[in-house]
Amino acid sequence: MSLDAREGEAKQRRSLLVVIATCLGSLALVALLTYGLIQKAPDTSIAESLARGEPTPAPSFDLEVLDQGSPPAQLRPRLERATGNGQIALEELRGVPTVVNFWASWCTPCRQEARLLQETWERVGKDGVLFLGINMQDARSDARAFIDEFEIDYPSVREPARETGVAYGATGIPETYFLTADGRVAGRHVGPIEPDELRAGIRAARSGRVLGAQENAPKPELRLVPVKPKREQPDGQDDESPKR
Question: Quick check: 227 pLDDT over 50?
Answer without folding.
Answer: no
